[in-house]
Design brief:
The complex is a heterodimer of chains A (397) and B (280).
Chain A: E1 4-20, H1 28-40, E2 46-62, E3 66-70, H2 77-84, E4 92-98, E5 101-104, H3 117-127, H4 132-146, H5 161-173, E6 179-183, H6 191-208, E7 211-215, H7 219-225, E8 228-233, E9 236-242, H8 243-254, E10 263-268, E11 281-286, E12 297-304, E13 309-314, E14 328-335, E15 345-352, E16 361-369, E17 390-396
Parallel strand pairs in A: 3-7, 3-8, 5-6, 6-7
Antiparallel strand pairs in A: 1-2, 1-4, 8-9, 10-11, 11-14, 12-13, 12-15, 14-17, 15-16
Chain B: E1 5-8, H1 17-23, H2 25-39, H3 48-67, H4 78-105, H5 107-110, H6 119-145, H7 157-181, H8 184-199, H9 206-211, H10 220-223, H11 227-239, H12 248-273, H13 276-279
Helix pairs in contact in B: 2-6, 3-4, 3-6, 4-6, 4-7, 4-8, 4-11, 7-8, 7-11, 7-12, 11-12
The chains are: A alpha+beta (397), B mainly alpha (280).
């Protein structure tokens, strides 16, 4: 087996958080008095808390690996990348890297709005660690990839945001380091461009045998691109292994821990039994028989991971819903056009006795799905959801 | 493979810092090039500002010198005497203040990409060198107008320019690093520059100070602690063909302060540099 190209040993990063003790009332007089006092005694007003952004993280990466780094917000992904790209030093532990690292933590770092596209290609290339000769030799390729030939001599401040992103990614994609570190940069740009970028990254990795570390919240992209994943949870390493083994853990993390005795399932209603873009889906909510009286309202809402609402359904507003039946043990929603196409979605669920009270039970993130993009091309138009068509039935014991 | 081996540990300084600095020399040029390109965008008279600014300073300083009856040695026109001092002073003051703010104005780079941070303040000083060359051309033009012929001492000018660079880089690195953590220095810098003009021999000459009966001899060495005293005296001495004196003791003291500043600047910068991204 080849020697690892990156070795991370017991890596930790601490930050000190200052907390100011708040008084219940704020008066200008007090503020001024405190300021004056503060000049002489600073510490008394503040308490300092230690925050561990990364705690005892160890893993290794071999040359040519495509490693996804996943975790929820605040898991420490970006801190890890910043340490690997030498922007910030670790507080404990050690990292050994055998090769040149180029990092793409932001699209268009160092782009200057007043400079033209041409000038920014050179500037950005230099900032990312390319030599002038290297940039010059790849210049045409970069321009072709970004599709901005026409606007090369326009200041980038007049670019559309799409052009800006394309140009910035194009420069970065033509870097040739041994290790490429990429943070959530594909979130910007349209689907076509994202596909193009992933294709380019795959080409870099398989063609040239480069190692890529990739952070994303887009599990479709992670699944398509990474053979291995490192899962972080609140600064700690939760899992490290093949993507298909780690991804379920990621979704497990996101689920509400208790679930309060309520089971939620979502199944595709395509004859193939698979998630096909544009296919209908069934969502069932089960509880122990008798837990909720018949006639309780069950609401569901479906969001993309970016927080965009796809649809929301309320059982009591749906004609087909028969609430008069006996001992109830759940409800079943069938959504004809859920609009699940290649984005991860999450379901929120709420239960209440009638329309006029707050939820008795509210489960946010009850379930997360990654439907995949099978059949995407044929179902382009299904991307746009106007009105969800759905039915709702009560489930009986 | 081990050629590029990097070990990241808490507290350990990068072993290959100076080698890295060399590898990133391209970036150094690009940042300077960017600043030059951007500098006069959306200004009506553009590059003419590079000529106008030193001329305005020169006129004001010459007027002040005349007003306060500063001594002009022998056959040197006052305007030329003042021009020889305005030249290094303007270079130092712009280089120092631009370098001091350079890390903060490039904070987006510091938090997103790795490179030896020293490149940022150093490249802003290079930009100021361009202005220096333009101003030098103006001084030479002035010499032609006054039919003033410099002698072989002119060849020593690069040495004194180097001393000015040392002073600007040293103080710039120090204040830039402090500025990252304590933004107070943002307000202190303009004050230092303003105050510096009063205690540097721009409107007057060092001989005015040394010959002054009002200043006690015992404290005259304090004046020589100003690194710009040595630089300006040196510039006058070599531009004006030795008609002004280059006081050996004063020059050495002032030069030593410059070198000391550079050492302190580099040491402090290197010590704090790794944490810049966390505090900026």
């Amino acid at each position: 087996m080849a020697a690892p190209i990156i070795t991370v040993e017991q890596l930790g990063k601490r930050f000190m958080l200052r907390h100011q003790q708040q008084e219940r009332y704020t008066a200008l007089r007090d503020v001024m008095a405190n300021r004056v006092k503060g000049l002489f005694q600073r510490k008394a007003q503040e308490s300092i808390e230690e925050f561990r952004a990364l705690d005892d993280v160890s893993f290794t990466v071999n040359a040519g690996d495509r490693v996804g780094i996943i975790g929820r917000n605040g898991a420490g992904k970006s801190t890890l990348l910043k340490i690997l790209s030498r922007i910030t030093p670790p507080s404990s532990g050690r990292v050994t890297i055998d090769g040149r690292v180029a990092s793409l933590l932001e699209v268009g770092t160092g782009f200057h709005p007043e400079l033209t596209g041409r000038e920014n290609i050179f500037l950005n290339g230099a900032i990312l660690g390319m030599s002038r000769a290297e940039i010059a030799s790849k210049f045409d390729e970069i321009v072709a990839f970004a599709e901005v030939e026409q606007f090369l001599d326009t200041p980038v401040k007049r670019y559309s945001s799409g052009m800006y992103v394309r140009l910035a990614f194009a420069v970065a994609a033509h870097l040739e380091p041994e290790i490429l570190v990429v943070d959530e940069v594909l979130a910007v740009g349209d689907a076509d461009f994202q596909r193009k970028c992933l294709g380019k990254m795959r080409e870099i990795s398989t063609g040239a045998g480069r190692t890529i570390l990739f952070v994303s919240h887009n599990m479709g992209a992670i699944r398509a691109f990474c053979d291995r994943c490192v899962l972080l949870d609140r600064g700690r390493l939760r899992a490290d292994g093949p993507t298909e083994k780690v991804l379920p853990l990621y979704f497990g993390l996101a689920k509400n821990a208790e679930h309060k005795g309520i089971k939620v399932t979502a199944t595709p209603m395509d004859p193939s039994g698979e998630w096909v873009a544009g296919s209908a889906m069934a969502i069932e909510i089960h509880w122990e028989p008798g837990r909720y009286a018949p006639g309780w309202h069950a609401d569901i809402a479906c969001y993309t991971m970016e927080g965009q609402k796809l649809f929301a359904l309320q059982s009591h507003t749906m004609r087909q819903f028969d609430s008069s039946a006996g001992a109830s043990r759940g409800v079943r929603f069938e959504v004809v056009n859920p609009g699940l196409i290649d984005h991860d979605v999450r379901l929120d669920i709420g239960l209440k006795p009638n329309a006029y009270v707050p939820y008795d039970t509210l489960i946010e993130n009850a379930l997360q799905l990654t439907p995949g993009n099978k059949g995407h091309e044929e179902n382009r138009l299904a991307d746009v959801i106007l009105v969800p068509q759905a039915t709702c039935t009560a489930l009986h014991a | 493979m081990s050629k590029h081996r990097i070990v990241l540990e808490p507290g350990s300084a990068d072993r290959h810092y100076w080698r890295d600095l060399w590898t990133y020399r391209g970036l150094f040029g690009f940042l300077a090039w960017r600043d030059i390109l951007v500098r006069y965008k959306q200004t009506a008279i553009g590059i003419a500002w590079s000529v106008l600014r030193p001329l305005l300073t020169l006129g004001t300083m010459a007027f002040l010198g005349w007003l306060f009856e500063s001594q002009v040695p022998g056959d040197v026109p006052r305007l030329l005497l003042v021009a020889a001092a305005t030249l290094p002073w303007t270079f130092f003051s712009t280089a120092f203040s631009e370098a001091s703010n350079s890390l903060i104005s490039n904070s987006n780079l510091l938090t997103k990409v790795y490179f030896p941070r020293m490149i940022v303040p150093a490249s802003t000083i290079i930009v100021c060198l361009i202005d220096f060359v333009i101003a030098l051309a103006l001084v030479l033009a002035l010499m032609v107008i006054y039919r003033f012929v410099p002698d072989a001492r002119l060849l020593l000018l690069p040495a004194f320019l180097l001393l000015a660079l040392v002073a600007a880089l040293g103080s710039g690195l120090l204040i830039a690093a402090l500025n990252v953590k304590y933004r107070d220095f943002r307000y202190i810098v303009p004050f230092i520059v303003q105050f510096g003009l009063y205690v540097s021999p721009v409107a007057f000459t060092s001989s005015d100070i040394r010959d002054s009966a009002r200043i006690p001899d015992a404290v005259k060495w304090l004046y020589e602690l100003n690194p710009m005293v040595g630089v300006i005296d040196g510039f006058r001495w070599c531009l004006l063909g030795g008609r002004t004196e280059l006081h050996a003791q004063g020059f050495l003291l002032s030069g030593a302060v410059s070198v000391l500043l550079l050492l302190i600047g580099i040491l402090y910068f290197r010590k704090t540099e790794r944490g810049f991204a966390d505090v900026i």
